[in-house]
Amino acid sequence: TVLVIGANGQVGSVLTEALQDKYGKENIIASDLRKREDFDGIFEVIDATNFDRIKEVVTEYKVTQIYHLAAILSAKGEENPLRTWDINVKTLLNVLEVARICNIEKVFYPSSIAVFGNSAPRNNTPNDAYLDPTTVYGISKVDGENWAQYYHVKYGLDVRSIRYPGIIGYQSLPGGGTTDYAVDIYHKAVLNETFTCFLNEDTALPMIFIDDAIRATIEIMEAPAEHIKIRTSYNVAGISFSPKDVALEISELCPGFKIDYKPDFRQDIADNWPKSIDDSEARMDWNWKPDYNLCSITETMISKLKEQYKDHLNLTE
Ligand code: VAH
């Protein structure tokens, strides 16, 4: 069985469904701090800062794989740095220790482009760039990558990791990220509301569509162990774009779309992140390649969100 920790999150919620489709609902244990009432499947409440609770669920369900998707993201994380550090690191160490003690076959650990800082080239940032992250979230992810590699080298634990770019999905509103503008913008466009962007118009960032991110996650986990050459974390890229690029793309489908720009503290975070990512190692080692570009992302986001808001839109039209 597969345990998903953080199953209510932006990635966790979609990944859980994809895993249920692939391996059967009876083999997926979803978990998070609070039970999701409308959840169709096996759900256990787990606070991942509690080692015993994770071990209890792993033992009870004979878990063989763990996907650890619980963390406090970049922007939210800056509100309380030491708490962010404590939660992001303690939860990962609990997962790695339970995995070691219970002989878990495979662990997935999500890292992020937030691990890069001013020392990394801004464009086509290489996998082995020097990491000097500027957010606590980024620091905790660099730390997590090194712990993942340590548990692989010292204990032979099969931990695999991807540095997610900003993830764009229609299934949930993300919480606390610096790239979240790229999700909110589509909701505002579909609701015919002006979008106020918290980054300035030419801030290009590496992004990936949710379906590509989920596929990358499952593909790296299903690759033969000998293909996984990097045990800290793999760069993975979808596409890079700026608020201006995505606003232009949206205007093609939503002619009256309006945007204005009010950069806030998240501009400083974004200014220290790469504009684009070199993911050639992922392509070489486990055949990674993205399917979605900005045009197909926009088409999919707009049509899915129109579907979600159809009752609301009929009421207002
Ligand atoms: C964040 N969406 O903004 C996350 C992610 C690369 C961005 O780490 O914090």
UniProtKB/TrEMBL annotation:
Name of protein: NAD-dependent epimerase
GO biological process: L-threonine catabolic process
PANTHER family the UniProt entry points to: L-THREONINE 3-DEHYDROGENASE, L-THREONINE 3-DEHYDROGENASE, MITOCHONDRIAL
Family to which this protein belongs: Belongs to the NAD(P)-dependent epimerase/dehydratase family.
Organism encoding this protein: Flavivirga eckloniae
Gene3D superfamilies linked to this entry: NAD(P)-binding Rossmann-like Domain
Positions of the NAD-dependent epimerase/dehydratase domain: 2-236
GO molecular function: L-threonine 3-dehydrogenase activity
UniProt xrefs under InterPro entries: Epimerase_deHydtase, NAD(P)-bd_dom_sf, NAD(P)_epim/dehydratase
